[in-house]
Amino acid sequence: MLKSMDKYLAAAALSAKNYLGYASEVIFRSGFLVVILFVFVNLWTVTYSRSGAEIIAGFDLRQMLWYLVFTESIVISRPRVHLKVEEDIRTGAVSYALARPYNYLLFQLSVSFGERMVRFISTLTVGYAVMTVMVRPYFPDLSILPFLTVTVALAMMADLIGMITIGFLAFWVEDVSPFFLVYSRLQMLLGGMIVPITLFPPFLRKLSEWLPFRFMVYAPAKLFVNCDISQALSLMAGQIFICVLLFLIGMSIYRMGVKRLDVNGG
């Protein structure tokens, strides 16, 4: 089992190494993050000042700002793997993958995960530096770091599997971008990217609890600022369940798409 995973680990490592050469994209993403954080710092500073409250939705001002650094770093680091899958299906390259000794979904997950980890680390580093200058430094409890690393990795895996699954819709449609637009907006609104879900009205909060997006964005960011190990364990269990569920859904759609290719002679 471990030996069969070597090829996926190697693909992830090679992808991460290759992305290190794209310095211009790293700089662009970092500059975009600086603008976003500048807006958020001013917006939430005014919000807390006008409300007169020290705690809003379980977060003080410092926690809220660092929470947003983390959520933005997670989302901005996302590669466009759904477009790569769409291109493979449209050009017929996916047919060649059928004869190769690897699982196509796992291979795309590995490649995109390696790239995303480099993006995330670079983006978070810039965000940490900017927020340290604009607010003040934040030092999470060192005991939470191993758990935080695992939860971030699982969050990214769940998100990437979801994106790859959207890409598989290219077996039936010409352009999967509208589906990804809906997916990304749901993640932005109900995943807690812009505001924590504890700020939502009760019905929206209940809805977000039934969707996978909070495991991809809100929960890891909350763990970053709260440093609760018991929370980390339950979070990881939920993330593993979501990853397995999305993987099974993705493989089912992929197999149906491959059968459609076979029937049509493609």
Automatic annotation (TrEMBL):
User: Transmembrane ranges?
Assistant: 26-44, 117-139, 145-173, 185-204, 232-254
Q: Note the superkingdom of the native organism.
A: Bacteria
Sorted UniProt keywords = Membrane, Transmembrane, Transmembrane helix
Name it: ABC-2 type transporter domain-containing protein
| Organism this protein belongs to | Fervidicola ferrireducens
Source organism lineage?
Answer: Bacteria, Bacillati, Bacillota, Clostridia, Thermosediminibacterales
